[in-house]
Amino acid sequence: MNRMKSESATMKDTTTMITRRDFSLTVTTAALGLGSAARAQGAAPTEGRDYVRLNTPVAVPAGGKIDVIEFFSYGCPHCYSFEPMLEQWVRKLPPDAAFRRIPAAFNATFEGYAKLYYALEAVGQVEALHKRVFAAIHVQRQRLDKEADIAAFVSANGGDGAKAVEAYKSFGVATKLRQAKQAVDAYKIDGVPALGIHGRWFTSGSLANGNDKALVVADHLIQRARKPS
Q1: CA quadruple 122, 126, 130, 132: dihedral positive or negative?
Q2: Are residues 97 and 129 in the same domain?
C-alpha cells in the first residue's frame, strides 16, 4: 500500500486503512496470503505477519496499566467505518488496560483534523462530539477545516464554538499535535486506523487482514503485555 501524498490519494479503494508510505505490492500480497491461510487454520497471531514488534520500545504513561492506542484521523473513511466496532471492543477491555486515541497528521488536512480532536479534548467535548465529527465529514460532507466552520459545528451541537476555536489555536493544542506526530513516528505508523499496544507492538487491518481481525490481534498483544519483556 502507498503512503498518502495528497488528499485525493487518501480516497483510493482500500478496505482497511489509509496509508502513507510505499511498500512492495508483492511482499504485501504474499504476507496477506500467508496470513489468510494461517488464520484459516486457527493459528495464533504471528509477529511480522499479523503485528509488528517495535525495535525501540516507546515510553508509556505512568500508572501501570497496559497502554492501548488507536491511531486514527477524522479524515479517514476507514476510521469512520471502524469506529462502531472499536467502540464496542473498548467497552470490553480488561481493567488493567487503558485506551486512548492519537490522531495522525499525514498531510495538511489531517493535521487540521488532529488539531480539531485536541481542541475538542481541551474543551471537554470529545465524548459528546467525536462520532458527530466523523458523521459530519463522511456523511454530511462537511470539511471542518476552517475556524468558522469548526465554530459553527461545535455551536450547532451544543458546545461553545468560540472556546473550541480558541483551543484550536492554542499553544496547548500545538504541543499535543507535536507529541502526536512523535508518537506516530515512534510507532512507525504508516496508515490508519492502527492499534499500538503498550509501546511494544502495533497491528492494523492491513497486517491482520481486516480491522475486525486487528482487534483479535490486539487482544492477544494485551495478554502478552502482562508478561515480562
Answers
A1: negative
A2: no
Q: Are the C-beta atoms of residues 38 and 209 closer than 8 Å to each other?
A: no
Distance CA 160, CA 143 (A): 19
Based on the fold, state whether residues 120 and 225 are members of the same structural domain: no
Q: What are the C-alpha distances in Å from 229 to residues 14, 91, 150, 212, 221?
A: 34, 27, 44, 26, 12
Read off the pLDDT of residues 191-220 as tens digits, 9 standing for 90 and up. 999 999 999 999 999 999 999 999 999 999
Report pLDDT for 42: 61
- Specify whether 197 is located in the same domain as 129: no
Around Cβ 70, how many Cβ atoms within 10 Å? 21
List the beta bridge partners of residue 53.
Answer: 201
pLDDT score of 131 more than 60: yes
> Can you tell me the distance from the alpha carbon of 204 to that of 194, in angstroms, rounded to the nearest whole number?
4
